[in-house]
Specification:
Strand content: 15-25%
Structural class: alpha/beta
Strand order of the largest sheet: 3-2-1-4-5-6-11
CATH architecture of the domain at 2-171 and 222-252: 3-Layer(aba) Sandwich
CATH superfamily of the domain at 2-171 and 222-252: NAD(P)-binding Rossmann-like Domain
Number of helices: 10
Distance between the termini: 29 Å
CATH topology of the domain at 2-171 and 222-252: Rossmann fold
Helix content: 25-40%
Order of helices and strands: EHEEHEHHEHEEHEEEHEEHEEHH
CATH class of the domain at 2-171 and 222-252: Alpha Beta
Radius of gyration: 19 Å
Shape: globular
Number of strands: 14
Length: about 325
């Protein structure tokens, strides 16, 4: 298939682009490079553009004869979304409305959306299923849920077939460890701890050690980037294989178990062979003790299952990429 990957120069998007190519698809990347890296998608058709530019999106869809769109272009920092909510509504919601309008104009009706388990807010029970209440507690989660609702109504109108994939923490390096995580500034736990192991950060902070968990630190669901991309590919295949005009697919993705902050830190120490300072600080507002997704539905309907569930193996891939690219991507 000819697929437009929006946000394709970012962490998840670049890994998705590589997997699509390996599977014989023809991806083209659309990215404004505000957070993405051009060098992560070398050799792939590339359009530098913003999703606010309706005419450019339509032109791109027609130029590459796009049959499906995969959408990873979004702002993802929860804290920033609380401080600058309008920025998140513009980038995450308004720009996606623009993209869907351009798709309708160009006659493209297949859409795979990178959503988030943040749409559930603070869950009343874990692991979280697709039937759990959607009660986001920050603008980031709100904007992602609003996109899902927009897709639902567009689908009900018979104009869109879509899959929405909800997950927590993508991690590791994919494409034989050639594509890794390089956010600037970085806010995700595993790369932050790796930076401490590399001496690029003076210490790593643990925000609270008095949670009702085995070691007192928060537990999160970490999913390897290649498992995540594989689920997106399977969802795309399912959309392609159905003739329903209003097909709607919603799946949680998770690795089947959670890991605590302390487990992540100790595993990075083991993999890297490095020691570093760990500071215990007070809790952050809004941090739930445990966040994990139930991926049973994706297993049953897509035939998907996380392959890289061992934290040490996941971190080994991330450590290898950071070790080989100590300054991140060259651009």
């Amino acid at each position: 298939m000819r697929i437009l990957v929006c946000g394709g120069a970012g962490y998840i998007g670049s890994n998705m682009t590589a997997m699509l190519t390996d599977e014989g698809h023809q991806p083209a990347v659309f990215d404004n490079l505000i957070t993405g890296h051009r060098s992560a998608v070398k050799g792939t058709d590339f359009v530098k553009g913003d999703l606010a530019d309706y005419n450019l999106i339509v032109k791109t869809l027609k130029k590459y004869k796009v049959e499906a769109v995969m959408h990873f272009a979004a702002l993802i920092e929860v804290g920033e979304s609380v401080q600058e909510p309008l920025k998140y509504y513009h980038y995450n919601l308004c720009n996606t409305q623009n993209l869907l309008s351009a798709m309708e104009a160009a006659g493209v009706d297949k859409f795979v959306f990178s959503s988030t388990a943040a749409v559930y807010g603070t869950p009343k029970q874990v692991p979280i299923t697709e039937d759990s209440p959607t009660e986001p507690i920050n603008p980031y989660g709100e904007t992602k849920l609003a996109v899902e609702r927009m897709c639902h109504h567009q689908s009900r109108a018979g104009k869109l077939r879509y899959a929405s994939l909800r997950y927590f923490n993508a991690c590791g390096a994919g494409n034989n460890c050639r594509l890794g995580e390089d956010h600037r500034p970085e806010s995700h736990l595993i790369p932050l701890v790796i930076q401490a192991a590399m001496g690029k950060r003076s210490e790593i902070s643990i925000y609270g050690t008095d949670y009702p968990t085995p070691d007192g630190t928060c537990i999160r669901d970490y999913i390897h980037i290649e498992d995540l991309c594989r689920a997106h590919l399977l969802a795309l295949n399912k959309l392609e294989g159905t003739a329903e005009k209003n097909c709607e697919l919603v799946y949680n993705l998770g690795n089947g178990r959670g890991y605590s902050v302390k487990e992540v830190i100790e595993t990075v120490k083991k993999v890297s062979g490095k020691n570093f300072k760990v500071a215990i600080v007070s809790r952050r507002p809004g941090d739930a003790p445990v966040l994990m997704s139930d991926a049973t539905k994706a297993m049953n309907e897509l035939g998907w299952k996380a392959q890289a569930t061992d934290l040490e193996k996941i971190i080994e891939t991330a450590w290898r990429w950071h070790s080989e690219n100590p300054n991140g991507y060259p651009d």
